[in-house]
Write a structure and sequence with these properties.
This protein is an alpha+beta fold. It is built from two helices and three strands, in the order H-E-E-E-H. A three-stranded antiparallel sheet has the order 1-2-3. The protein starts with a helix and ends with a helix.
């Protein structure tokens, strides 16, 4: 049983490493604001179109929040998918002991 737990820990570390390399994005204002985030939910890039720099700060902040939340949602989907796959493997391993 201890070996199985160690194997699961190793798999979790591999999943975390793989999630670091998966990049998803969220956009607002027809792509004028783009936020990229990895599968571990860390923002890797933010792009704000020059034309939006003329907007008032409150509107820009609202658009940025929309883009960030969309990116986080995409990252959550990727993260949940990876974890679900690992969970299915672990269940199968435990059921077939």
């Amino acid at each position: 049983m201890m070996e199985k737990l160690q194997a699961m820990q190793g798999q979790m570390e591999q999943i975390k490493q793989r999630l670091e390399t998966i990049i998803v994005s969220g956009e607002a204002e027809n792509g004028k604001i783009k936020v990229q985030i990895n599968g571990n939910r860390k923002i890797t890039d933010i792009h704000i179109d020059e034309s939006l720099m003329q907007e008032d700060a409150e509107e820009l902040q609202e658009l940025l929040m929309i883009a960030v939340n969309r990116a986080i949602s995409q990252a959550d989907n990727v993260n949940n998918s990876e974890m679900q796959g690992a969970e299915n493997v672990w269940r199968y391993d435990l059921d077939n002991e």
